[in-house]
Amino acid sequence: MSNETIVAIRGYVGAAPTVFTNATDKDTGEVLSTKTTVVRVGVTPRYYSRSVNEFRDGQTAWYSVRTYGSLAAHVAVSVDKGTPVIARGRLVMRQYEDKSGLTRIEHVLLADSFGIDLTHGTAVFTKTSATPLESVPGEPRYSADAMSSEADKQFTTCQQETAQDPAGVLEAVMS
C-alpha cells in the first residue's frame, strides 16, 4: 500500500448506479469481482466571495466511484441520482480513448467505504442478514439452485460476506 493516494470525497450522485457482473481488468483479463457497482459523484467546492458578499460555486470535479462485493450490493440499492454521499478509497487515474478518438483521463475512486452524507438529511440503517430475506408480494423470486455462485446469492439477498476478500478484489486491485 505504499505510494497510494487515499482520499475521501463528499458530493452528489450524478446518475443511478451502474451494476456490472463479472468485472474484468481490460488490460490483463483478470476477474476483479463477481459484482461491481459504479457511481458517478460530482464534487463542487463552495467558497465565500467577500467582494460580492455571497457564496459561490467552484468548478465541479467528477469521480467514478467503484465498489465491489457486498459494498457494491449495498450501494446499488441505497443511492440514486441526487443522493449526497461520502466515499473513501484509493484514487487512480484511468486513461481511455473516447468515441472521437481523443485520449481522456478519468478519476476513479476504488472505494472501501461509502455512505450517505447526513449533513443534508436523514437515513435509516438496515443491518444485512446472514439468512435469505423474506420475499415481498410481487417481488421476483430467486432460487438458490438457479444461482451460479455464493456471490450471486449474497448479491441478490444483500447478505454480509464472511470472508475479508471473497472475490479476491483487494489482491487484484491493490497490486
UniProtKB/TrEMBL annotation:
Sorted alphabetically, the keyword list is: DNA-binding
Q: In which domain of life is the source organism classified?
A: Bacteria
PROSITE patterns of this UniProt entry? SSB
Q: Which organism is it from?
A: Arcanobacterium phocae
Q: Which Gene3D superfamilies match?
A: Nucleic acid-binding proteins (2.40.50.140)
GO MF terms on file? single-stranded DNA binding
Q: What is this protein called?
A: Single-strand DNA-binding protein
What start and end residues bound the annotated signal peptide? none
